[in-house]
Amino acid sequence: MIGVLLVTHGPLGENLIDAAVHVLGSRPQLLEALDVSSRAEPREVEAMITLRMQSLDKGDGVLVLTDVYGATPSNCMCRALAPGHAAGVSGVNLPMLLKMLNYRDLPLDQLAAKAALGGQEGISIISQDMCDAAAGH
User: Fold this and answer.
1) Domain that holds residue 10
2) What is the DSSP letter of 11?
3) Number of Cβ atoms within 10 Å of the Cβ of 42
4) 31-54 pLDDT, tens digit each
5) Does residue 137 sit within a domain?
6) Which pLDDT score, from 0 to 100, does residue 83 have?
7) Across residues 66-74, what is the average pLDDT?
8) Rounded to an integer, what distance in angstroms lies between the CA atom of residue 58 and that of residue 63?
9) pTM, 2 dp
10) Orientation angle between helical segments 72-80 and 42-56, nearest 10 degrees
11) Exposed/middle/buried for 33, CB within 10 Å: 0-12, 13-18, 19+?
12) Predicted local confidence at residue 82, as pLDDT
């Protein structure tokens, strides 16, 4: 099973995991968050990411999800990625996390693609028709 590490600003990663646990009913295995504070030193963040990835990799690799591409969590993730053993996806949201958790037995590159697709599919402009349908009208 592929390990999953969320590397995000503030408590976002742990909060996303809490929301996923609420939906799924239990905490999935090999799922951790590294919440990066505004005072964190990038070198320390990189070292923590590396340690967490080593802990989560049980042979199938690690998928690292970050919130904003180009920001400190994402930049540190990029420097810590181990080619062939880890992949990264930015823009993490709850639909991405839930989708990805259902496909963790896929190869790492395919799981990264599923995660990105899940995140994109989870974004909608909600029309009145959609609201009416949800309300049973």
Assistant:
1) 3-131
2) T
3) 13
4) 999 999 999 999 999 999 999 999
5) no
6) 79
7) 97
8) 12
9) 0.93
10) 60
11) buried
12) 80
**Looking at the domain assignment, is residue 82 inside a domain?**
yes
CA 24 to CA 109: how far, in whole Å?
24
Report if residue 136 sits inside a domain.
no
Furthest-apart CA atoms within the chain: distance in Å:
55
**CATH at 34:** 3.40.50.510
Work out how many domains the chain is built from and give that number: 1
- DSSP, res 136: T
67: pLDDT strictly greater than 90: yes
Phi, psi of 21 (to 5 degrees): -60, -40
Residue 107 lies in a domain: yes
Does position 137 have pLDDT exceeding 80, yes or no?
no
HEC assignment per residue over 2-14: CEEEEEEECCHHH
